[in-house]
Amino acid sequence: MNGYAMAHLHGHSSHDDVLEYLERIQGTLDPFGGRFLVHGPPVEVREGEWPGTVVIIEFPTLDAARSWYDSPAYQEILHLRTDHIAGSAILFEGVRDGHDPAKMAAAIRAAR
Question: How much is the pLDDT for 12?
Answer without folding.
Answer: 86
